[in-house]
Amino acid sequence: MAGTLPERDWKYLRSIEKELLDELCRRINQRAVEIVQSETGTGHEKYLALYKHIEASDRIVGDCFNDWRRSTLTMKLLFLYRHKLLDGEQILKLSEEARGFLDRCDA
Q1: Which terminal residue of the chain, N or C, has fewer Cβ atoms less than 10 Å from its own Cβ?
Q2: In terms of pTM, does the model score above 0.70?
Q3: 63-77 pLDDT tens trace
Q4: Helical spans, DSSP H, in the chain
């Protein structure tokens, strides 16, 4: 893959961008609830765990969703894939070139 995805991949990923972001935020929020509602740890320990979780999650959100341009979409696709935001059906809607790129990233 020469740095950019085919136009159809760009259009498809742009069409599901909000859905993917919402799913990521749902996961982040669910984990935050689990941290806060944990039966173990002091209030301060929970706070520290929550802070670390939000800090790490913010990096993931940025990696996956900040600066969406055609020229950065190859990396965005890789981050979306590595963070398991794309399901099998969504991957199948990508071009053969994009799927091949993801297969090579798994190797």
Answers
A1: C
A2: yes
A3: 999 998 888 889 999
A4: 7-36, 43-65, 73-82, 88-92, 96-106
